[in-house]
Design goal:
The structure is a single chain. This protein is an alpha+beta fold. Helix content is 31%, strand content 19%. Strands 1-4-3-2-5-6 form a 6-stranded mixed sheet, with helices on one face. Strand 5 and strand 6 form a beta hairpin. It is elongated, with a radius of gyration of 31 Å.
Length: 366
């Protein structure tokens, strides 16, 4: 009897050991399987990012697309300068301007936190910010409210934090920037090149792959040199005429500005609001002076540039008139007065060549 009991107990112990071993292996296998699934998740994202970068082929601009085209990469020569961002309250950054962002690709996202479709675009925008910020992309969220409720700054702050937005956001409570960009729907994405020109616009959700391709293409574009034509540099020749000769050649207003060092009234000049692509020449002797690539919106009422075609094309002299010291800018070839240069301009030079429209002649490039 004792023998039988002992045998049964031994058999039970053996079966229990086999079951325990099997369960342990099953649990370990499951844990290994879960671990294997979790790790490749991150790896797959990294591989996906590397694959996107490795397979990048620059987009070709649509030569038939006009400056106001949507869902097309607008050619640089046809693109218009982006309107300035109107004053508002900034989140996630100090207040800035598009001029200060020259040299970077800028994605402007018109959105409002109450918009369901706007919230759906955020995962892509946050990923683009994470992937390309260090490579030259700046995303600016322009918060344009649809309702009075969405105008409350505390609620905007809470939404930006809750939604995990880390890129700069500026409020547009009155819709001023919205109207400047002629936007009519949320969300709208506008992508600017390094010269601050509008190169792509998309309304609504989607087109994320195209937007990323546009960003990659614009980041890869070489910054346009303001000496757009190699023969634009001044060769040293001089044009000298008597004042009577200049008076016969120039209009009354041109003579006043260019020969008598006058200044046209702010916001009255022909080229203050000119956004065409081309070059600006001296109105008196036709020396090439500035390129539209270096033109920016200074808000002063005069056409402004951050650098000339070539430094030698303009002559700078100290001007002590009107009880202050300024730097006068003259045409190097005929010594006509053009305007003044100041040190409050945008990157990359930090200079503002504030010119009189009547001293310039613009020629559009096709």
């Amino acid at each position: 009897m004792n023998y039988k009991i002992t045998s049964v107990l031994a058999l039970i112990s053996l079966v229990a050991a086999i079951i325990f071993t099997g369960c342990s292996r099953s649990v370990a296998s499951k844990q290994d399987s879960q671990s294997a699934v979790a790790t490749p998740g991150k790896t797959d994202k990294n591989k996906e990012k590397l694959n996107r970068e490795a397979s990048f082929v620059p987009m070709t601009s649509d030569e038939n697309a006009g400056a106001n085209a949507r869902d097309a990469l607008i050619a640089a020569g046809k693109a218009k300068a982006a309107p300035a961002l109107k004053e508002g309250q900034w989140l996630n950054s100090e207040p800035t301007t598009l001029e200060n962002l020259r040299g970077r690709v800028v994605l402007v996202d018109f959105w409002t936190f109450g918009c369901y479709n706007c919230r759906n675009t955020l995962p892509t925008l946050k990923r683009l910010d994470a992937d390309y910020r260090d490579k030259g992309l700046t995303i600016v969220g322009v918060h344009t409210p649809e309702s009075e409720y969405e105008k409350n700054f505390d609620k905007i702050q809470d939404a930006v934090k809750r939604l995990g937005i880390k890129y700069p956001v500026v409020t547009d409570g009155g819709g001023d920037t919205w109207r400047e960009y002629n936007i009519e729907a949320w969300p709208t994405v506008v992508i600017l090149d390094k010269q601050g020109r509008i190169r792509y616009t998309h309304i609504g959700e989607g087109a994320y792959d195209v937007q990323e391709k546009v960003i990659q293409t614009l980041l890869a574009e070489k910054e346009a040199k303001t000496a757009s034509a190699s023969n634009g540099e001044y060769k040293g020749e001089k044009i000298v005429k008597t004042e009577d000769e200049w008076r016969k050649q120039l209009t009354k207003e041109q003579f006043y500005v260019m020969r008598e060092k006058g200044t046209e009234r702010a916001f009255t000049g022909e080229y203050n609001d000119n956004h065409e692509h081309g070059d600006y020449y001296c109105a008196a002797c036709h020396l090439k002076l500035f390129s539209s690539d270096a033109k920016f919106e200074s808000g002063t009422g005069w056409p402004s540039f951050y650098q000339p075609i070539a430094a030698i094309n303009v002559t700078e002299e100290t001007d002590n008139s009107f009880g202050s010291s300024r730097t006068e800018v003259l045409c190097s070839r005929c010594r006509s007065h053009l305007g003044h240069v100041f040190d409050d301009g945008p990157k990359p030079t930090g200079l503002r060549y504030c010119m009189n429209s009547v001293a310039l002649k613009f020629e559009k490039q096709n």
